[in-house]
Amino acid sequence: MDYIWDVLIKAKNEGIDLKDVRFCFASGFSPYMELSDSCINFRDIDKDVEINPYYRFFDIFKDLFDANYYKNGELRDVLFDLVVHFLGELDLNRGMDRVEYHKWFFYRELIEGTFGQRGKENIKYFSIDEKNILIRNLYKLYITGDHIFYLKDTIKNIFKGSIVYLNKLDKNEFLVYIRQVDSSENLKKMELIEDLFLPINFSIKIYWKFHFGIIDVAETMRIGSIANY
Amino acid sequence: MKEIIQSKLDRMSDLQQRRILKNMMLDVFKGIIDYQEDVNQEIENRLFNEIQDRDDNFTIYNTIVKREKLDIVSDCLFPMKEEDYEEEQYDKKEILEKIRNNEPVKITKIYLKKSYPELIKMEREKHKFKGLIISEDKEIPIDIVLQHNEEYIAIEEEMYKIFMQNAVRWTTINNPYIRKFYDVVIAGCQEDMGELNEFEEIVFDLAELEEDKCVGYVPVWNIKKTTIKGEGFPLPTKDKVNYEHVIPYKNLGYENGYLLAPNQNMISLRKNKDGIIITSNESNSIVWELFAVLQENNSLINDQYEFSLLSNKKKKSFVDSFFNKGDKVIRSYSELNRMLKSFEVTNDLQIKGINILDDLSALEKDISYDFNSYIVDEIRADKFRKVLVIEFEAMELDYLKNDLISFITSEIQQYFPEYICKGVID
Q1: How far apart, in Å, are the Cα atoms of B235 and each of A160, B202, B238, B284?
Q2: Is this prediction's ipTM beyond 0.90?
Q3: pTM for this structure?
């Protein structure tokens, strides 16, 4: 993590309440870094975040911690904390561009139930990262109209190590192998992916945990771990 | 952000400092945060509306009203047929003449407050009803039949053609009412009428339909026909001279949709701030015939009608306008749901599931019909198309239930031309 907004994003993704994130003026800091924690490569936000405010915001903070002034210490600390939170929130809007807004509108309408009641319920099972993958691909699907590409891409990215086969020979069918187990959560996720990406004239068969056997492919032909097609 | 401020203030131990900081925060900082939130919202709205701003002011509202009440609502709803302003007239001599020659005679039209399957059943059974011609000295029994009235559907079809001529995207009109009108027809008279050439009235009895018949109602919609003179300015193109005719809004309005009546030498019609601009090769400033599709009228929002006001109004949705910009068709299950949800009238309806059948004969019950029956698919023959059955979740709806799912199925049909779309509901 390098910047204030790194901390905020990480906190949001991990469900940490922003009220519990406290920014404070680092006692000793590097002039070349914004986050100046005593442990440079810290990864967890479990305590105060020490920062060097002069890295980007010298003009704002140049007088707040004047070394000759020592009264009202708590006030200045809390004020500092709040202003940094605010600046961080501003940072978070800087990266918003047209595409990000458009994706946000898609997401908002999905959770409002525009894409059906099931979508509204099943989106809850996705983590923030997975939601990002889902919405990004949904947005691209609506631009390009390519169902098959984005169905494959979404499954592969959300279920790591899965394989998607397309059978167009005698019927329109997808065969999907997913390395994970068919927990109710995974089933719900898969249901939403199907709803959003699967063309209505296609069917989909999912093999959870065990791959179906393919002759001559040794990995799929282990006794006790073969699924039947 | 405000919660963060409150929480951090609450945790301060030095009360004096807390009070000072609290005053600072509540005055200045809160103002800054509010301002920042407004600015963000403004950017968001701008991006949302950027795509929204397509020409979507062709929402059509319709209902039926009693003929006597027509004038009261005429600031926004107009009869589909101009003749409907006047009382129905009939030539008694002609009626009698036709009965003598055994020709069927239409005497009036009625609206039947029945659901689609009930009406289909009634049509199939071909009921004959009893009627009487009452004259001074005798009563002559006659046979009455009901025939489906097609005249308003024909008017809607004309409107479809006008939409096409004006190159405006067609959205299925949600008008079940005009599909429930029946002509009351005298089918014959067994008795000899003798020298009768004058009578007082004709009465008829529709037996079990009597309760559901509504007499003297006419369909109305928010399309107003107007004529207006424009100013022409010549405008050269590569190989000819076109003329731009500007029609200032005056008592028309920017928010309305405008269509030019057919056969008027129009090349294109567009709107800008000053007025409606018609490009044409007509050089004189002439009187233009316009159809104004009126929007944003209070009477169109307030439900003050005896029969509910139905519309094909779309909700303000980003995905909907985003999608309509592109030329791609999305064929996912969610997309069907999205289309369903995009209209205001279908907001509460849910899709239970879909089914694809090989042909129509596999369909168990056929309870939806096509609102756009006049749009012909010129590419695909019906016998090669599969059937997409959309099952809707059952819900409490009045006798217009089948019509509502037919409306949305007809709209979905427009986007899924490779299927024959059918709606099913329990």
Answers
A1: 62, 62, 10, 13
A2: no
A3: 0.82
CA distance A184 to A182: 6
Tell me the per-residue pLDDT of B276-305, one tens digit each, with 9 for 90 and over. Answer: 888 888 777 888 899 999 887 777 777 778
| Distance separating alpha carbons of residues A21 and A18, to the nearest angstrom | 5
* Chain-centroid distance, C-alpha A121: 18
pLDDT at position B392 is 92
Domain residues of chain B, as ranges? 1-51, 61-220, 223-293, 314-425
What is the spatial order of strands in the sheet that B241-248 belongs to? Answer: B231-236, B241-248, B275-280, B266-271
Is residue A27 classed exposed, middle or buried when 0-12, 13-18 and 19+ CB atoms within 10 A define those classes?
A: exposed
Q: What is the pLDDT of residues B157-191, one digit of tens each?
A: 999 999 988 888 889 999 999 999 999 998 888 77
The pLDDT value recorded for residue A157 is: 93
| Torsion, CA B100, CA B105, CA B110, CA B112, rounded to 10 | 90
Q: How far is CA B50 from CA A24, A74, B44, B315, B320, in A?
A: 41, 47, 10, 16, 13
B341 touches chain A (CB under 8 A): yes
- Given CB atoms, is B13 within the 8 Å cutoff of chain A? yes
Tell me phi and psi for residue B77, to 5 degrees: -115, 135
For residue A120, which residues of chain B lie inside 8 Å, CB to CB? none
- What is the Cα–Cα distance from B261 to B191, expressed in whole angstroms? 49
